[in-house]
Amino acid sequence: MTEPAGLVNDEERADDRIERRHLQVIGVLLVASFVVILNETVMSIAIPVLQVELGVHPSVGQWLTTAFMLTMAVIIPLTGYLIQRIPTRTLFVLAMSLFTAGTLIAFAAPGFGVLLFARVVQASGTALMLPLLMTTIMTLVPPARRGAMMGNISIVIAVAPALGPTLSGFILDHFGWRWIFGFVAPIALVTLVLGARFVVSVSETTKAGVDILSIPLAVLGFGGLVYGLVSIGESAQDSATIPVVVPFLIGAVALSGFLGRQFRLQREDRALLDLRVFGYRQFSISVVAMLVGMATMMGTFIIVPYFAQSVIYLDPFETGLITLPGGLLMGLAGPIVGRVYDRRGPLVLVIPGSILVSAGVWMLTTVNTSTSFWWLLLSNMALCLGLSATFTPLMTSGLGSVAAHLYAHGSAVVGTFQQVAGAAGTALFVTVMTVVASRSGHPHDSPEAIAEGVRMVFLVAGILSFVLIAACAFVRKPANPVDHAHTASVGAPAQGI
């Protein structure tokens, strides 16, 4: 005997409800993540200013962004282990304390070296926050509502970097570079206090040990490859301290050792970064697409402001305004994209989204010394809207396809690869620009040379965008996970807080 349709729907709606205390946890984590990720791009506008005030070259100044993302790429592999071992509230307090301390150090930094150290401390906190947010959402949110909730996450991981240049441009014009951090510090402190009050643990903790050897292998592997990309640009200007091949070789050997060790350790459930998540086809496809999208986004958010200030001579605030409409557009589109995903699946979003990303990038291949503000603004809006339509479905489809006991590792893999892609994209774009500008026949720091380098950057990015479109064509919505019951069972607070 079948039950009335209305009763079934009521039960389904009851199953899809999220407890108020869990919504509070997610809300605090969203705010905290927005604040910490905002710092990934606030330096993009400030680098030309710091270049003058602190006496650093662009290839050195970019390390304020590259070191931030590289630190995240090194620490995020640890988060799968940490989330399983440390209660949610404790990990949140640790993350926000590190970020707040780094922000205060940056505010008081007397020179470039201390400022770079402060960015590394900030990044250590940021690295813990985003995987913690994604794992918490995958644990607490029923499958039918994950798309909409991931739409909110897209506001964090995409809008915050887009708004960073606008905020820093305004502050630079009116207060000076130190107040980029002075503005963020009190917000970080308030978020830390609120989190300590409202965040509760959402899953059980274990006593799993950590493989010590995996940590230096991850540091040398991911760090070596990214530093190798940076060294190419330094070598073009005869400022490389070591031969370019050395960091690439060290990175490749260490990364091979790291991956081999994880394959062996995951058989005993002791892997620092459990690679079994790549056994899920949709996860693998989504990660490939996110890598290309993240590299394109972070590289663009660094190169376009530099071009705007160095070639068409916009002031910092005008430069920041280039990213503002795109960021607002992403914020408005994120929740809508999430709801469309829940109802229609990813394909209707990721195909037009990836095509928009490609269109925005190819528009930038035409820039020159007479490019207008409005052309940069329009291309950025196309890029941001496209990223908004792709990131949410990719994250939801990818993480939703893995088993519940691998959520923490899936989040760690996504976070690690996103940050490596972002750091590599930034280093690659700056390297291409530097090399081409140095060989352009003009002085390497002249507007004509920089414009020629930027055109080549976006030609490379345009080719990469075809990879994004191809990967998105294979993205599908995973079936409702059979382990939803397991998800519900671990929703109660863990003991020990």
From TrEMBL:
List UniProt keywords, sorted A-Z: Cell membrane, Membrane, Transmembrane, Transmembrane helix, Transport
* Keyword Transmembrane helix included in the entry's annotation: yes
Listed InterPro entries: EmrB-like, MFS, MFS_dom, MFS_trans_sf
Q: Which residues cross the membrane?
A: 25-50, 62-83, 90-117, 123-141, 153-172, 178-200, 212-230, 242-263, 283-308, 320-340, 347-367, 373-394, 406-436, 456-475
Subcellular location field: Cell membrane
List the GO molecular function terms.
transmembrane transporter activity
Can you give the residue ranges of the Major facilitator superfamily (MFS) profile domain? 25-480
Pfam families xrefs: MFS_1 (PF07690)
How does this protein lie in the membrane? Multi-pass membrane protein
Per the record, the domain of life is Bacteria
The signal peptide stretch is none
Task: Give the record's family classification.
Answer: Belongs to the major facilitator superfamily. EmrB family.
Stored NCBIfam families: efflux_EmrB
Designated name of the protein? Major facilitator transporter
Please report the organism this UniProt entry assigns to the protein: Rhodococcus opacus
Lineage, opening ranks = Bacteria, Bacillati, Actinomycetota, Actinomycetes, Mycobacteriales
